[in-house]
Sequence to fold (146 residues):
Amino acid sequence: MGTWVNWLLLIGGLVCVIAELAMGAATGFDLALIGCSLAAGGAIGLLFHSGNTGLIAAGVLGFAYLAFLRRWLRSKLTSKTHAMNVDAVVGKTALVIKRIAPLDPGQVKLGDEVWRAELLQTEDAPREPGARVIVDSVEGVTLKVR
Fold:
């Protein structure tokens, strides 16, 4: 086998990396990293002037990635879901800073933010400044509290 095998590995690996980037990492970087294994194997084969060495190096690198590094890399790339925006405030305790009456909205402070707030039930007693309330839901920019 001549050095043409190494050139095929090198070019094929680069095509895989470019394809992965063009697809926007759709395969979770698997195609790019397999492509890097192929390209590195081709480069090693060219360095040692041996097609067999290039094929063996590409195979070993590809196997090492799939067998050992893929699971670790996937765990690092997978994001854990966190409640954000509206979902993050439901169930939190807020401090009343402007009186909230049954048909008269007030204001609460939740974290560093001031929100408009209404009582969840119109028959609930008014909440005076300094009282603590629980956020039940969010409607637009208004917190429904109890």
Observations:
- Residues 4-77 form one domain.
